[in-house]
Design a protein that fits this description.
About 55% of the residues lie in helices and about 20% in strands. The protein folds into two domains: about 200 residues, Hypothetical Protein Pfu-838710-001 (Beta Barrel); about 290 residues, CHAD domain (Alpha solenoid), CATH 1.40.20. It has about 500 residues and is α+β, with helices and mostly antiparallel strands. Helix 7 runs antiparallel to helix 8, helix 8 packs across helix 9 and helix 13 packs antiparallel against helix 14. A hairpin with a 2-residue loop joins strand 7 and strand 8.
Length: about 500
Amino acid sequence: MADTQRETERKFEFRDGKKARAGRRRVPDLTGTASVAAVRDRGTADLYAVYYDTPDGALAADGITLRRRTGGEDAGWHLKLPVAPGVRDEVRAPLSDALPPELAALVRSRTRHRPLEPRVRMHSERHTDDLLDADGRLLAQLCTDSVRAEHGRAATAWTEVEVELADHGDPALLDAVEARFAEAGLRPGAAPSKLARALTATGAPPHARPGPGPADGTAGAHVLAYLRRQREVLVAQDPAVRRDVPDSVHQMRVAIRRMRSALATHRGLLDRAATDPVRAELRWLAGELGADRDREVLLERLRARLGEVPPSLRVGPVRDRLRAWNTHRRARTRRRALAALDTDRYLALLDSVDALLTSPPLRPAAAKPAAKPLRKAALRDWDRLGDRVAAALALDPGEERDRALHEARKAAKRVRYAAEAAAPALGKPARRLVKAAKSVQSLLGEHRDGVVSREALLGLGAQAADAGESAYTWGLLHGREEARCDLLEQRLPAAWAKAGRRRSRAFPK
């Protein structure tokens, strides 16, 4: 069984580059630094680690380390996933000969079908000190490591010092330690991890992925930069979804929608014969993840609506009923999402996205300067949105109009994403168009959530009745949602007119 802990640390090295045990004796006493009242010597241990990666270094390229460690108090398999500079999530599994399946799954979006093999072997002689406050509570650990690493026939050695915060530690302590270390001749480490330093020192630095920024000012370069950013989010959120990190499913779906939207909006720049199959597979993946995300959103909304009802009108065990409803749905939707991520179809989709970005199927228009094609594409999507809003408003209230308003909402998202992609080239006008589209999207999104809530409330009411409970509260909430949707539909013409004025100010004719 794997467990996770958040690791917040900073690494330091000596300016003179001296190594070995002399380095530990020169680490300054941190007593009196910030809230450090005492330093407790924990002794020295020998740590042996083997770092694993694909033959082409896919994990190292994304700042991920996977190691099997023996020695010390934390022997086992360790997977470190970057969160922010100096912050990583460390997922641990018990020591075993083979890589635990749960850790293999967390790196699958990077490894795909490539094997994991030993890349670097490392021995660290580690001296540990606990930094304590006046009450004896652990604030952080100070570790001085004399390291020797081997990669193939090459070897390197160095001494480094790291300070890792205890759970719920204050990052301000790290700032104070860094200032104290600077006085003593220690500087922040140049490498983000021991593995990165070892690979660089032995002549095999981690492969650098192409940056998301456009290489030139062409329309194709801007669109590809936008797609690359979404690809990075998609791949990075995979392990977060598997670990059930809050909001991870949402972030993954947003990246998928943005990619699908960009491929549709910019058909004039990218060959549809190559992009349409990718769009279709992205749509499949979004659908598999969507059930779990929709359940999350719906649960939050129903809880909030229940909280608005006076206690005297909450008849029966409504909160227990909602909890049971969610538990049943969550088990099913989460299984569906995780099952999709474990399919060969999903891995093939990731490969096809990478292939598209590596050898993009650019059409001749992609070589044009970015401003005009991106502006034209965004405004074309705006006109499409206008047609859908008009079509919805021409319908009588009811299910058909609800479906039409949902289609208008999706069109509003597409305008927003097109304007986001164009913003690096068009600047403020594109950002204004983003705001205009977002205002319409928000109203239509609230309407859609109300429609979905009404459907769920009917089901909850039926379940309550079947169990011999009162369905009154569920009916009350259904009526309130219906009234909200009616009000939003009444507000839509004015909201659309206001958005149109914003669009005109952004891009005057």
